[in-house]
Amino acid sequence: MTLRKFLFLISLLSIKLVSAQEKTITLEEIWNGSFRTEGLQSLHPLKDGESYSVLNFNKALRSTSIDVYDYKASKYLTTILSSNNLNEVSYFLDYTFSNDESKILIATSEQPLYRHSKLGLYYIYDVSTKTLIQLSEEYVQEPSFSPDGSKVAYVLKNNIYVKDLNKNVTYQITNDGKLNHVINGVTDWVYEEEFAFVRAFEWNSSGDQIAYIKFDETNVPEFSMDIYGEDLYPFYSEFKYPKAGEINAKVSLHVFNSNTKKTKEIKVDNKEQDFYIPRIKWTNANNLLTAQFLNRQQNDLNLWLIDTKTNNSSVLLNEKDNAYIDITFYLTFLKDNSFIWTSEKDGFNHIYHYNIDGSLNQQVTSGKWEVTAYYGFSTKQKKIFYQSTEEGSINRTVYSIGLNGKNKKKLTSSQGTNEASFSADYSFFINTFSNVTTPPQYTLISSRNAAVHRNIKDNSFLKNKLSTYKWSEKMFYTTEINGYDLNYWMIKPHNFDPSKSYPLLMYQYSGPGSQKVANQWNDSNDYWHQYLASKGYVIVCVDGRGTGFKGAQFKKLTQNQLGKFEVEDQIEAARKFGELSYINASKIGIWGWSYGGFMSSNAILKGNDVFKAAVAVAPVTSWRFYDTIYTERYMDTPQNNPSGYDDNSPLSHVDKLKGKYLLIHGSADDNVHVQNTMRMVEALIQANKQFEWMIYPDKNHGIYGGNTRLHLYNKMTNFLNDNLKN
Q1: Which of 58, 561, 579, 685 is most exposed, with minimal Cβ within 10 Å?
Q2: Rounded to 10 degrees, what is the CA torsion of 678, 680, 682, 683?
Q3: Looking at the domain assignment, is residue 533 inside a domain?
Q4: What CATH number corresponds to the domain at position 517?
Q5: What's the average model confidence in pLDDT over 492-508?
Q6: Whose CA is closest to 301, among 360, 346, 357, 345?
Q7: Which residue, 50, 65, 89, sits at the end of a domain?
């Protein structure tokens, strides 16, 4: 080869490399899964403490399997179950072990209902006999093994059933379940959405009692929406939805005894007439049940201890707050029935250890930082494992600490977001780590000395792939706004030139206790923001007052006036960014989804001298239209706080619109009803204001399915280009 040819080839290669590094992310790539990360699906730590199982899918054979791996050695051990070996099912979607791991509940088909709930077809696989039986021929909800694995309880058409696996018989334990009237053992819509659970029944430790919550929603107002479908006529979808200030479902607590086949209602000396039961949990004692009773205003919580044999009950602890009390899943009973509890009572969320009589044993953690997850307690090590914001509110780190609050140890070393999945004996955990520059990495770490034993998966393929694209670094900062230090991130255009002037797009959510400024890997919106940055936008996100992980006082500043301080912070931040030499102050836009849509709507109205354009996706436009639990937690009822509801509603400020406004909603949104958008549209029309809007037929709050997301983000991109760039 001649020198000339060699140099020519080198030149071509260089051109190709430069070209490869200049690729721009496309909207099609964002929504077709091109940047999807790999994870560990349905990971279950096994009881031996030395192995774990995951769900694997074989694309070639189109089959699923439950495979077991060794924690230490990083090697495949065995396959417990493969759909290739089953005649009855071709694949399955999820699985759950019985406590002794002798049986496996597998889901073969699922039909989503609302955010967390679904209907499913289930089978039970016996590991020793390798036999498979169907749980029910009908789609059911929330199947759960008894502690000894001999029975499975589930909900079918609002009633609770129990299948005895030894006798292969099924019996019904409630009979009054009826659509839109009575629900047994699963939550109604508003509990599911706002208390974040579906299964409302629990087995006791010996498996001879089932405690459950009954919802009588007969008098709850009914919401209906048109489903257009593909037939000649549309049809109604009707469900109970209590809007702020309206009647909630009447809840009651019951216990079924499998020995006597009798059910009794559990009543406590609760002074509140209108209340919630957001959690129930058995202690380790067969007859001792706990239930959390929360007043409707959600600022007074009692943890009741109930003896289901004698019907005696007492309050273990009471929590009160001037604003509201957050409900968690972290209540844990230790072997002696003392218990772990988390609380914000000292101003930050921390872990407490209580005795079974309700007396405080020890505040385990303390400091001006938040416990963000409680992972469990090791009886062998006598340690609690938790996640916190000790390395800054935008980061998450895993720690261990003694039950006495001493000998705290940091277990993860990388700064960013660390999440832990522990082995059954807490000797190891799989750490999922990511930050703004690192896609999820899975590593095995010793809980005793924090030593990293091995890397499991690192998604390096994605990082390598993204290195060929135009990519702008997301930078984290703090800024003083309205007397508070607020976290924000900024993405500048690729090949940023400080001498130029760029349009600014602000993104936020801003709801109480939320966080969008977090040191973690990208979600789909991050990729869209990178796309916009490659086209010459500066993107900023500010977590204002009312957002989370900076203490209870900061989080609860917005109480009784949602949309006031949060909006003021976004407006003032926009003014401050507009003073930067490289920001075109005449071309500032804002966008958000759900609560963020409420915010962006208010921002362009109240901040009409600052914002030129706003996009509101699925927005609340009046908190009068939203559900009781969420809204009243932060706003009280409209009857008690009418000005709080109306003064900061976008509906009250439509006459202030000057900029360009795009309003988007799904017509089948069961969460934030399209009613919000329709009322906003009418108000804008009557104020003689021009705007743009888009309705996605039969789409829910997530607005997805087929090409829907691609169409939506093309719509928003074109709107921003027309009104901020041109």
Answers
A1: 579
A2: 160
A3: yes
A4: 3.40.50.1820
A5: 97
A6: 345
A7: 89
Tokens of 682: 């009418």
* 400-431 per-position pLDDT tens digit: 999 999 999 999 999 999 999 999 999 999 99
The pTM for the full model equals: 0.94
Tell me the pLDDT of the chain averaged across its residues: 95
Tell me, letter by letter, the H, E, C secondary structure of 458-494: CCHHHHHHHCCECCCCEEEEEEEECCEEEEEEEECCC
Q: Is residue 70 part of a domain?
A: yes
Place of tokens 């039950």: 403
For 14-29, what is the HEC assignment? HHHHHHHCCECCCHHH
Q: Which pLDDT tens digit goes with each residue over 264-275?
A: 999 999 988 899
pLDDT beyond 70 at 13: no
Enclosing H/E stretch for 252: strand 250-257
- Give me 394's structure tokens: 């935008």
Residue span of the structural domain in which 480 resides: 473-725
Give the per-residue pLDDT at 7: 38
**Which is more confident, 630 or 8?**
630
Decide: residue 78, CB within 10 A, 0-12 exposed, 13-18 middle, 19+ buried.
Answer: exposed
Question: What tokens does 603 get?
Answer: 């921002």
For the segment 31-56, the average pLDDT, to the nearest whole number, is 94
The answer to whether residue 509 sits within a structural domain is yes
Q: Of 54, 89, 124, which residue sits at a domain end?
A: 89
Q: Residue holding tokens 């208010």?
A: 602
Decide: residue 620, CB within 10 A, 0-12 exposed, 13-18 middle, 19+ buried: buried
Residue 170 placed within a domain = no
DSSP state of 522: -
